[in-house]
Design goal:
Number of domains: 1
Helix content: 10-25%
CATH architecture: Alpha-Beta Complex
Order of helices and strands: EEEEHEEEH
Number of helices: 2
Number of strands: 7
CATH topology: Nucleoside Triphosphate Pyrophosphohydrolase
Structural class: alpha+beta
Amino acid sequence: MIEVTAAVIRENGKFLICQRAKGKNCELLWEFPGGKIEAGETAEQCIVRECQEELGVTLEVERELTDIVYTYPDRTVHLHFFITQIIGGQLQRKEHNAFAWITPDKIPQYEFCPADAEMLQKCIVDLG
């Protein structure tokens, strides 16, 4: 099982979603940014590092929202979702195809990676 984190970055009633790059797993599907927890790293440290690397922003972690275990055909992930906010840096598209700030009512307009979609079904009321 792969331990992974994801950031639900909130700002002004919206949250940030990112479109995965072509050629990656779940290519061109939408997700919450994050990545694999490295040895000796807490989940909170991981999400801060990953968003600095992928998006050029520094996050403040408010709390863990939920966690999901999802089995893809080639791997199983244990995904920890954190409610966060940007406290520094400038949002940049370094690894993703696109990003968007959306309100919860816009979720049906986007096709999400399966694990992210499962979290949204479970926690939609907590995102606003």
